[in-house]
Amino acid sequence: xxxxxxxxxxxxxxxxxxxxxxxxxxxxxxxxxxxxxxxxxxxxxxxxxxxxxxxxxxxxxxxxxxxxxxxxxxxxxxxxxxxxxxxxxxxxxxxxxxxxxxxxxxxxxxxxxxxxxxxxxxxxxxxxxxxxxxxxxxxxxxxxxxxxxxxxxxxxxxxxxxxxxxxxxxxxxxxxxxxxxxxxxxxxxxxxxxxxxxxxxxxxxxxxxxxxxxxxxxxxxxxxxxxxxxxxxxxxxxxxxxxxxxxxxxxxxxxxxxxxxxxxxxxxxxxxxxxxxxxxxxxxxxxxxxxxxxxxxxxxxxxxxxxxxxxxxxxxxxxxxxxxxxxxxxxxxxxxxxxxxxxxxxxxxxxxxxxxxxxxxxxxxxxxxxxxxxxxxxxxxxxxxxxxxxxxxxxxxxxxxxxxxxxxxxxxxxxxxxxxxxxxxxxxxxxxxxxxxxxxxxxxxxxxxxxxxxxxxxxxxxxxxxxxxxxxxxxxxxxxxxxxxxxxxxxxxxxxxxxxxxxxxxxxxxxxxxxxxxxxxxxxxxxxxxxxxxxxxxxxxxxxxxxxxxxxxxxxxxxxxxxxxxxxxxxxxxxxxxxxxxxxxxxxxxxxxxxxxxxxxxxxxxxxxxxxxxxxxxxxxxxxxxxxxxxxxxxxxxxxxxxxxxxxxxxxxxxxxxxxxxxxxxxxx
Length: 669
Prior knowledge:
Layout: H1 3-24, H2 37-40, H3 65-76, H4 87-99, H5 105-113, H6 119-129, H7 131-144, H8 163-174, H9 179-192, H10 197-202, H11 218-238, H12 257-265, E1 270-271, E2 276-278, H13 281-311, H14 317-332, E3 339-341, E4 345-346, E5 354-356, E6 364-367, H15 385-397, H16 402-417, H17 438-450, H18 455-463, H19 478-487, E7 500-501, H20 504-515, H21 533-536, H22 569-573, H23 592-600, H24 602-618, H25 622-633, H26 640-649, H27 652-661, H28 663-666, E8 667-668
Antiparallel strand pairs: 1-4, 2-3, 5-6, 7-8
Helix pairs in contact: 4-6, 7-8, 9-15, 11-12, 13-14, 16-17, 16-18, 20-24, 24-27, 25-26, 25-27
């Protein structure tokens, strides 16, 4: 043996003997700073307080208690809110807000002609009862939940049953599931109602984040997924940046590394990477008998697959593919009527929860027990670990959890006014923004609790207020507008309704609705409509297999397939998030590609042609055609100028395409 070889052998032996001992020995627990009175006094961590609407000088303005909170702040600055918007503007605003779709010409006609003093409230009730409501507000939640139909990362593998969680969310909003139940089922639905397949599907929330199944070390994969899951639960339900404490104590908030791993301990005893049967109690018994017969073969195949993946996934790819086929056959061997879902369930074996030094899965620290973040409260945790997850779910869902209630109320407000009362919906800590109207947030939170977590009741309180109905344009009262703009340019005092651009899904759905092509079929696997030729030329094999059936291509955008590494082009250019992390509020950009996409895309011109054909059937003169087009696309009657533009265009299809590109179509006042 050469000296160099001998030295190398000695170094390797020393590393194994001494290095490994240091690598795998228990790391000491980090210091944990105490929670101070100032920490607990932070606005978001306090218990809910009872507040009353303030007194105001102008008692003639206002329809609900919400308005008194708004007006009191405006009067402190000697400001007045804008007057009420016109009826057509109000109808378009509320219809897009609650359903993501434009009102029909018939709905516009009925609302403009109605003399009923409660006509607006009747519109609100009709929209909240519409199945289109759940599709719109479900999408808001799916943004927060980081939902996608694929894993992300290099291979971006398809999750064949992820759509079941999307459908569950839409259905939950449609049926106004109490928010407490909405929370409990997403965190512990498999434990709360183990015999209810829908409740099991709800736990898909925990697994919505990106994943890398083909990673060499499955221990690292599990560690990464659990960390992502823990961070998401903290952000989404508590407005706490728990993920920042995975490697060290939070630099700004009273969240220790131990807090993070105690929260993670609730999810440690979960089976994460096998799709679960969505079965009733009787069906589960039949499955248990079947699995008992097949367990030996299943375990043998999974062990072999894991070995091949760790050895070399590329060289062993043919054998891995064959094993996947065998496993799929075993998975498919289920009793009739039982489907599979992407969901969690308690692990069959006890799992020890540990802290990991610097967040490194190889640096194992002390054992930790499940507990809620210290600054946010306390909860008595059951000693049996799988059931501990129900304790976490109950604690978050409790009406006494002021933090969780404020977070959800703020999310609902955000999607009606363009920003939350607190501008950082996922961060209610010291790096977040204090609420512009803290008493209003507190009052709404109490009302939300009083309604037993009814999201629809909260919508109704907000959208029937006088403040929600204010005009968003200067023409309504130029002097008042200028005063508000000068004193409050960012509209934090809410004296006027901000203008909002439609998102990509609303634009697509509104175009299809205008063209009379929108397919209102609900639920089911994600649809992949054809992509533009210039995009298709760049795709990998099987990256976007178009769904058979042309009629399915015009379904609502909520049901389109969501691929992390290939966002639908129209959605991407209009700022749809990539789903790699929770998105509480979409960025709203204004770019040249947006205008070019709308102006030149085949989709725009197909919709314009269909719209023009439909109008030509019932409207003969240019004035009639312009009026019909404006009522369908812009939700208002045509003006003489509109008729002149049609004459100038010389072609009804071109005129319709111009309307679909107009700012008046793309923005809600």
